[in-house]
Please model this.
Amino acid sequence: MDFFVPFRICGSGLTAQRAKMDVITANLANVDTTRTPEGGPYMRKVVSFSSKPVGRVFDMKLRKALNMVSVGDVEESKEGVRRVADPGHPDADASGFVSLPNVNVVSEMAGMIMASRAYEACVTAFDATKSMALKTLEIGR
Amino acid sequence: MNDIIIGGNPALTPVEPGKAEKEGSGTQTPFGTVLKKTIKDINDLQIKADQAIAKVEVDNSASIHEAMIALEKADISFKAMMQVRNKIIEAYQEIMRMQV
Model:
């Protein structure tokens, strides 16, 4: 059915924002992690999205224009680690400095707000599409 | 109801194209076939919604928004089918009321 195309797009948007939220949560949870399996402090993860065509839609023009979103790669941020003087820390080096993750709590919070607002927007678009579909069924009643 | 014929829409061609060729034009489908196929599609959507809920509740292997979207798809297609049913019943009752 035609009305299922926006649902699929909404679904991909919800999945993408969920993934972003998961990555942000992991970054916030690891804000003080100094030990990782790869060695060294935790590195902030950044998720990137890519678009992919929706496929079967009812209009040829829309078929070329519409894109869904899909979760691309989750990569490590290239920012440098924080160096904090804390000689008492078990992971401090010879000069008394500890390498802490390059997670900035404030920017993670901003990203979190953006992800949750985008998620809400997708849900609102879904609801609007659904009410359009149900309104269509009232034709001729 | 096989004598009501829907024609023209290539998307509504029957499941077995060979049968339609035997009947002649190839683009005409008996109304009963269309109705059966639509009901089957809607039933499939209901089953998919059930499976999506089961995946969330039992396996924990799907996300809730996918289950909700499957539910909404099933809901809307079912409501669309109910409208078709209402129209059919209305037409049937109209015929039954005919004076002979």
Notes: Residues 50 and 71 of chain B are 8 Å apart (CA to CA). Chain B touches chain A through eleven residues (CB under 8 Å). The longest helix of chain B spans residues 64-96. The two ends of chain B are 21 Å apart (CA to CA).
